[in-house]
Specification:
It is a single chain. By secondary structure, the chain is of the alpha/beta class. The protein has 2 domains: 129 residues, 3-Layer(aba) Sandwich (Rossmann fold), CATH 3.40.50.1010; 46 residues, no CATH class. The chain is built from 11 helices and 4 strands. The chain has a 4-stranded parallel beta sheet, with helices on both faces. It is globular.
Length: 193
């Protein structure tokens, strides 16, 4: 079955990070999961911060995300929500989904919302996306470098060099992972296995 992770809404909010994390899920190196509730929260937040975007455009993004990764949507978790305790009750749906799909990790920038003592009984942990990508770079460096190359190739409007994408991802919190990518690039690690 493989390592299963649930992406929290906060890591799907910034477009460059979302693009990277969806592409990671497409590789199959990990099984990526989310829920309609997580996507609702994500896209609601995007619309609040970027009112120039339209709901139709974001619906298209949502549809493409759901089609990009096989079996990505978790269902049947709602009955667990009220039985769980977290510092922020609004995050219980994320933990419930993670329990339902047997996830080993919740990928989130809100680590304090998912304390180890709340997740450990379910055999999972909360990981910052920087730590998550860093772990994947240790596990499958060529796969992640290829994902980054594909992400750069897909950026057309405006086009972006890999160094610029890395700067953007670093500004989105992937400080250690970007440092590791730069080291791997300097060593000419192959991007295919």
């Amino acid at each position: 079955m493989g390592f299963i992770v649930v992406y929290d809404a906060c890591v799907l909010h910034p477009a460059p990070l979302r693009d990277l994390l969806v592409r990671v899920g497409m590789t199959g190196v990990v099984q990526v999961k989310w829920t309609d509730d997580i996507l609702d929260e994500c896209f609601r937040s995007i619309l609040e911060k970027k009112p120039e975007l339209t709901a139709d455009r974001l619906q298209r993004t949502r549809t493409l995300m759901n089609l990009a990764i096989r079996d990505v949507l978790v269902e049947g978790y709602q009955g667990l929500v009220d039985t769980l305790e977290l510092p922020d009750p609004d995050d219980r749906h994320v933990l419930a989904a993670a329990i339902r799909c047997g996830a080993q990790a919740i990928i989130t920038t809100n680590l304090k919302h998912f304390p180890n003592e709340a997740l450990a009984p379910y055999g999972m942990e909360a990981l910052h996306p920087d730590d998550f990508v860093l772990d994947l770079l240790d596990l499958a460096p060529g796969v992640i470098l290829k994902v980054l190359d594909e992400q750069v190739q897909a950026l057309k409007s405006p086009p972006m060099a890999l160094s610029d994408l890395l700067d953007t991802l670093e500004n989105n919190g992937l400080v250690q992972a970007v440092s590791q990518v730069r080291q791997l690039m300097a060593m000419n690690v192959p991007t295919t296995f």
